[in-house]
Write a structure and sequence with these properties.
single chain; 366 residues; alpha+beta; nine-stranded mixed β-sheet; globular; disordered C terminus
Length: 366
């Protein structure tokens, strides 16, 4: 029987999950039943026969030879919505050269824009070979909240370059009052209409996405904060991550969507939130450096200002790698007119980049 490349059936999806368990171990977050149920509840679907399928596969005689797992999404370009797909895993189990790329190409045809965060070196090279554009290190905005504890935590010795950098480059800022928005039903959608007008290109951030992605996540706790109780001044979405083998935390910013005129106050409110949650630093990853710096103005520092000091971005455990930020790959088989990669608002909340890593499983792709 010839090899078929198509969307997986429910039974074939179970086989794909078994492959992921064999590859990563039983504690891999991507095969958690709660996680799979949550993914299928996404507000985004592809217009296909197997609408709930989240795998594109190469199959022969009921054997899965290659797979690509993905999440459907939407991208808004100059006010109009377009189909997008975020790849989350891409694996060729067979010895058939090029089969994985063929699966990749097949899925590409189902969207205007295809995206991929956190590719390993092999996947990044493969993406380049089939014409994808790669950003090796997306913007990472950073602010150090507690200098003394951070230096102690990371082992920065007095008189070292890192010690001087941390103590000289992050000025004290006064607290800004904020609200934690626990009820999504009272949040104004003003932040979204302003985001559409602000960003020429953005990954969809409507209230239905915010509810599914953050309020209904099966095991990650997120905090949606604003300068007012109803989010009219805009919202920021935060996760408090405890550093492994430590009582200290870091604050990861997943989204920051201020209404115009509230950019600085909302960015500093995030710092205030971090102080109250025993955090040593706060960071924000965004594809668009231009917008990241607009959303996280002074006293935050951009990647080019802190890259040489090796501030860790992995904390389960603390780990410094050659890569200084997350990489990003994009392909646009039918690129919407007006799409601008340098002005593309997409963050770590897209795809599956913000995951709680089990102690027994450490992903090689983040």
């Amino acid at each position: 029987m010839a090899i078929e490349i198509r969307f997986a059936t429910e039974n074939e999806s179970n086989k794909c999950n078994k492959i992921l368990v064999d590859l990563y171990g039983k504690n891999y977050y991507g095969v958690d039943a709660r996680f799979i149920k949550w993914k299928k509840a996404s507000p985004f679907k592809l217009p296909q026969e197997n609408a709930n399928s989240l795998f594109m596969i190469a199959v022969e005689n009921s054997n899965v030879l290659a797979l690509q797992s993905f999440l459907p999404s939407k991208v808004i370009v100059e006010g109009k919505e377009f189909q997008a797909i975020w790849t989350t895993e891409w694996i060729n189990i067979s010895n058939i050269k090029g089969l994985g790329r063929n699966v990749f190409r097949a899925l590409q045809t189902h969207a205007n824009i295809n995206c991929f965060f956190g590719a390993n070196s092999f996947s990044a090279n493969a993406c380049t070979k089939i014409g994808w554009e790669i950003i090796n290190n997306i913007e990472r905005m950073l602010y150090v909240i507690n200098k003394e504890k951070l230096c102690e935590l990371f082992g920065y010795k007095p008189k070292s370059e890192q010690f001087y950098f941390v103590n000289e480059k992050f000025p004290f800022v006064k607290d800004v009052n904020h609200f934690v928005c626990e009820d999504i039903n009272i949040i104004s959608d003003r932040y979204f209409s302003e985001a559409i007008s602000r960003f020429s290109s953005l990954s969809y951030r409507g209230l239905d996405f915010i509810e599914w992605r953050y309020y209904r996540h099966p095991y990650l706790k997120y905090f949606v904060i604003s300068l007012d109780a109803y989010g009219k001044s805009g919202i920021a979405v935060l996760r408090v991550e405890q550093v492994k083998d430590s009582s200290l935390n870091v604050v990861r910013v997943l989204d920051i969507l201020p209404s115009r005129g509230f950019e600085e106050d909302l960015a500093i409110a995030i710092i205030t939130f971090g102080k109250k949650n025993n955090a040593v630093l706060v960071d924000f990853f965004c594809v668009s450096s231009k917008y990241a710096r607009e959303l996280c103005p002074f006293p935050y520092l951009g990647l080019d200002e802190h890259i040489s000091y090796d501030i860790p971005m992995l904390f389960q455990p603390i780990e410094v790698r050659e890569r200084k930020s997350i990489n990003f790959a994009i392909d646009m088989p039918s690129c919407p007119k007006g799409f601008d990669l340098k002005s593309f608002y997409a963050t770590k909340s897209d795809a599956e980049q913000d995951v709680a890593l089990n102690d027994d499983y450490k992903t090689p792709i983040i």
